């Protein structure tokens, strides 16, 4: 049974997983022998290949359905990776979750994640790193896809959460090597749930940064202010978001970020249901809010972050949602943008909201449905 379909006793399972995070490394070694894992190579997750179809016109593979993470037996995948000079084990893997195995007598098993890098072939070999990656993908029966694209297009929230956890924890244990207090080496637990300083015995844990993401509406609740980031695809608009500063409440973050990004004041800040872990660039917890502002106030978009900010009617946003749901993989959008060239007026039109993998998609959709 996949880890995103848990049905057994939750309390017992949660307590077992908590024990795994604190137990001796030898216990994790044994669990690794009989567990499963999700694989990332060159920072790209392995997904089932049937989500892609070959396009002979472009000589490239393109998505035809929402991607799904591929699960591997920890022991079996070692044999495939070995010829590529790749080793996996508890040293370079992290404990992510548990799953229930109904086939064998062991009910609870561990689920791991690893993020490894292929060695670049020598120049004289005539083989590129990308060619090597594609060859490995064929042997595994998968496709490796960019992390952001995977997070945005997966339609299974549990799989997105699992991938996000893998990215955040594997990045943490690779970078967090020395004690911030005394600079001595840290001893990482095999689970990667924590690390202990070998000198001062201080414990450290993977961290995550809170982010407030806000749908800004007018007093009539018939218009919303959406923004276009410089780094995002043209014609895709989203909500205002920003990191919470030390000593700041999340509702204060909302008011500050709105003021900083679009130059207006908001009020009636209210939390919304749900949240989302987002692994890029360094691990955030997206917490949704709704706030009210005056449409008559002059918008002063932050030139360092935004390309455009504008009020849109409920009808305009409804049309953008319709396009987004009809084209969840953004295939038609990229085709439209390539045909229209680099016309700046075309780029600032509202045609799409973020794909279903982003919490902004669900915030905007719930506003359209008048859920708040």
From TrEMBL:
Q: Which cofactor does it need?
A: Mg(2+)
Domain spans labelled Nudix hydrolase: 206-335
What keyword terms does UniProt attach to this protein? Hydrolase, Magnesium, Metal-binding, NAD
Q: Which GO terms label this protein's molecular function in UniProt?
A: hydrolase activity; metal ion binding
Gene3D superfamilies linked to this entry = 3.90.79.20, Nucleoside Triphosphate Pyrophosphohydrolase (3.90.79.10)
EC no.? Answer: 3.6.1.22
Family matches, as Pfam families: NUDIX
Top EC class of this enzyme: hydrolase
Q: Where is the signal peptide?
A: none
Name it.
NAD(+) diphosphatase
